[in-house]
């Protein structure tokens, strides 16, 4: 009697153990992959810092087939496009989230929410094609630009890409604000607009910030769309009209040049160094987003 | 991707350490004592059971971890062995069964050479053709050393290269296989019809930034180019921007838009009256206007076409060559005959100009 029972227990323990370790391996491996990818990037990219002089790397001219590896125009190009995209996306997405959560009647909300999810599902190549053939000529004609393929065009479409991410996170944040806050505000005689602007949005601030950070991370890593729309001219975006001139981003450079580059050449290693810069940037952005979440949670307040 | 043995060992050992870590990971014991009744007794029993369980479990865990590590080492070793021997045997087999033609050289020609090889292998399954790029010089050097059968070159062999080949006991034979011509294109509404090479160079280096400086309207010039990895880009840089001078260090203006495809260039040229672009003659669509080009102010302006390219009157064109070690025979001769005959049909599809 006792034997059978202990055998049965042992069997169950084994099943339990194997399932548990399987799940554990799966769970840990995503972390492992990130570490391995990072090691690989480092292995391929750090060579560039040794083989190519710092003066060259920090130069303002990117022309790899003649050994000009100035990273600055690409870095500034990426930052310019991403920041402008977020500046455009911010009011639109927070406005949309507030409308969906606070203003819109129930049936509108039911239509709008899935529509925004569909928006997130549009492939970036399609958006890039749209930008290249429709948006760029429009901007060229109505803004009087020399060409429609500019940083601004890229920023507009990137903003569109970042919208769904920011909207859904911001909407969740607004959702987490307790009804009692709104009730209290309204009971004190505040109008609906005052309640939204002074109570609900400040209470959901950190969630909205997280959404912006995630959108930022998405925008800076976007490749195909940027490559099709921004013109890819590696000029330094330091003049005032740079926003309406072509620029070249790091992602587009890697995508355009990695396919044909000779393996082991300094060009190859510099492209990986660009990858490291991108990785670090997105990592910092996500870290910032994560710390805002955690800080708020620890305080026991709202998300 | 070349990976050294040390790196393989490093990665494998890293993987083993990682695996051992994951397997032996224990969550910190979760203790949640009820406080409402008989705390001490319950706690005692709880800890007792827990200790016993932990002892058993850790033994099981350690055994399993060891087993997994052993297995992973074994499989890696076996896989390496298998991969090594496997590829060797297949290489030997195919080498015996089929005739192999090695074809190497110019990156400009590599896509055309690949298209020829694929098409030829489809109709001649007994022949295997391997095509690699690397540049004209690399291909010619490999042919001189006898490691390839056919060298692709976007330039004629230099006299010292021919001497080197003769020192190795053979004289290379030249086959002109196609023509490469680059057309300069603008929007159809642009009144500029003709430019000299010097003017095109000045436009692309950023010296001229307005169309009125070359006889057009008062509009800014938008420069379009293929990406730097395209052979057309390099050819344009060397022969148009630098006007073929080896000591020149002129570069494309940093304002040049580098577009990833021919379609990108044709779309922008079609839609933007400010734009100027260039591309292989075969890629130019009818809705772009081609510019007539002259060597200098005293030479005639010539529009690119199959005729003007073949009679060498159009200045931005060059013949593309294949070189063999001595008079070809057997399969290599058959292949070259096919390229000069039926193979020419593929040439315009890849943006080059076929031979007459």
Descriptive overview:
The complex is a heterodimer of chains A (303) and B (356). In chain A, 37% of the residues are buried. In chain A, a hairpin with a 4-residue loop joins strand 1 (62-63) and strand 2 (68-69). Chain A contains twelve helices and two strands, in the order ααββαααααααααα. The longest helix of chain A has 50 residues, at 2-51. Chain A has a two-stranded antiparallel sheet with strand order 1-2. The mean pLDDT of chain A is 88. The radius of gyration of chain A is 25 Å and the shape is flat. Chain A is mostly helical and 303 residues long. Chain B starts with a helix and ends in a 16-residue tail after the last helix. Chain B folds into three domains: 5-86; 99-179 and 322-350, Periplasmic binding protein-like II (D-Maltodextrin-Binding Protein, domain 2, 3-Layer(aba) Sandwich), CATH 3.40.190; 180-318, 3-Layer(aba) Sandwich (D-Maltodextrin-Binding Protein, domain 2), CATH 3.40.190.10. In chain B, the strands form two sheets. In chain B, strands 1, 2, 3, 4, 6, 7, 8, 9 and 11 form a nine-stranded mixed beta sheet that branches. In chain B, strands 5-10 form a two-stranded parallel sheet. Chain B contains ten helices and eleven strands. Residues 33-43 and 84-96 of chain B have low confidence and may be disordered. Chain B has 356 residues and is an alpha/beta fold. The longest helix of chain B has 59 residues, at 39-97. Chain A binds chain B through residues 13-14, 17, 21, 24-25, 28, 32, 61, 63-66, 68, 73, 132-133, 136-137, 140, 146-149, 227-228, 231-236, 245-246, 248, 256-257, 259-261, 263-264, and chain B through 1-2, 18-19, 22-23, 25, 56-57, 60-61, 64, 220, 222, 227-229, 233-234, 237, 251-252, 254-260, 264, 267-268, 271-272, 274-275.
């Amino acid at each position: 009697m006792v034997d059978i029972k202990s055998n049965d227990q042992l069997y169950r323990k084994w099943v339990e153990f194997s399932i548990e370790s399987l799940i554990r391996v799966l769970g840990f491996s995503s972390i492992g992959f990130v570490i391995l990818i990072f090691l690989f990037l480092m292995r391929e990219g750090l060579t560039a810092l040794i083989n190519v002089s710092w003066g060259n790397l920090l130069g303002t001219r990117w022309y790899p087939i003649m050994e000009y590896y100035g990273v600055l125009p690409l870095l500034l190009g990426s930052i310019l496009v991403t920041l402008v995209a977020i500046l455009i996306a911010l009011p639109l997405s927070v406005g949309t989230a507030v409308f969906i959560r606070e203003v819109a009647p129930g049936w509108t909300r039911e239509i709008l929410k899935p529509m925004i999810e569909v928006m997130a599902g549009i492939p970036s190549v399609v958006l890039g094609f749209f930008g290249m053939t429709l948006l760029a000529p429009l901007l060229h004609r109505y803004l009087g630009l020399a060409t429609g393929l500019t940083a601004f065009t890229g920023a507009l479409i990137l903003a569109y890409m970042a919208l769904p991410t920011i909207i859904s996170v911001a909407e969740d944040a607004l959702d987490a604000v307790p009804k009692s806050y709104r009730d209290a505000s309204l009971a004190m005689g505040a109008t609906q607009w005052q309640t939204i602007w002074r109570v609900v949005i400040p209470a959901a601030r950190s969630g909205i910030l997280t959404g912006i950070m995630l959108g930022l991370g998405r925008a800076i890593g976007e490749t195909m769309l940027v490559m099709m729309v921004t013109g890819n001219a590696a000029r330094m975006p330091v003049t005032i009209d740079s926003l309406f001139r072509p620029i070249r981003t790091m992602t587009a450079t890697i995508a355009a040049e990695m396919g044909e580059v000779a393996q082991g050449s300094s060009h190859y290693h510099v492209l990986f160094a660009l990858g490291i810069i991108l990785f670090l940037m997105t990592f910092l952005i996500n870290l910032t987003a994560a710390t805002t979440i955690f800080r708020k949670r620890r305080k026991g307040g709202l998300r | 991707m070349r990976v050294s043995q040390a790196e393989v060992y490093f990665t494998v050992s890293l993987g083993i350490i990682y695996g051992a870590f994951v397997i032996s990971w224990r969550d910190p014991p979760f203790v949640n004592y009820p406080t409402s009744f008989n705390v001490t007794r319950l706690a005692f029993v709880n800890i007792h059971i827990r200790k016993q369980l932990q002892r058993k479990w850790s033994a099981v865990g350690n055994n399993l971890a060891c087993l997994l590590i052993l297995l992973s080492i074994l499989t890696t070793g076996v896989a390496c062995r298998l991969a090594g021997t496997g590829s060797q045997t297949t290489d030997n087999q195919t080498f015996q069964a089929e005739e192999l033609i090695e074809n190497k050289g110019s990156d400009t020609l590599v896509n055309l050479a690949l298209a020829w090889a694929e098409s030829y292998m489809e109709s001649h399954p007994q022949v295997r053709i391997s095509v690699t790029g690397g540049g004209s010089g690399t291909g010619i050097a490999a042919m001189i050393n006898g490691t390839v059968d056919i060298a692709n070159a976007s330039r004629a062999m230099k006299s010292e290269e021919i001497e080197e080949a003769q020192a190795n006991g053979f004289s290379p034979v030249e086959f002109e296989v196609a023509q490469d011509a680059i057309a300069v294109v603008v929007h159809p509404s642009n009144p500029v019809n003709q430019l000299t090479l010097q003017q095109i160079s000045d436009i692309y280096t950023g010296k001229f930034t307005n169309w009125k400086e070359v006889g057009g309207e008062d509009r800014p010039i938008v420069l379009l180019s293929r990406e730097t990895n395209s052979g057309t880009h390099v050819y344009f840089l060397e022969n148009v921007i630098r006007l073929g001078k080896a000591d020149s260090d002129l570069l494309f203006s940093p304002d040049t838009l580098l577009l990833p495809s021919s379609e990108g260039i044709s779309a922008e040229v079609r839609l933007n009256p400010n734009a100027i672009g260039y591309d292989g003659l075969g890629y130019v669509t009818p809705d772009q206007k081609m510019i007539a080009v002259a060597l200098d102010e005293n030479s005639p302006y010539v529009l690119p076409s199959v005729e003007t390219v073949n009679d060498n009157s159009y200045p931005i064109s060059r013949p593309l060559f294949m070189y063999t070690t001595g008079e070809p025979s057997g399969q290599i001769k058959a292949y070259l005959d096919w390229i000069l005959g039926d193979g020419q049909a593929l040439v315009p599809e890849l943006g080059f100009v076929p031979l007459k």
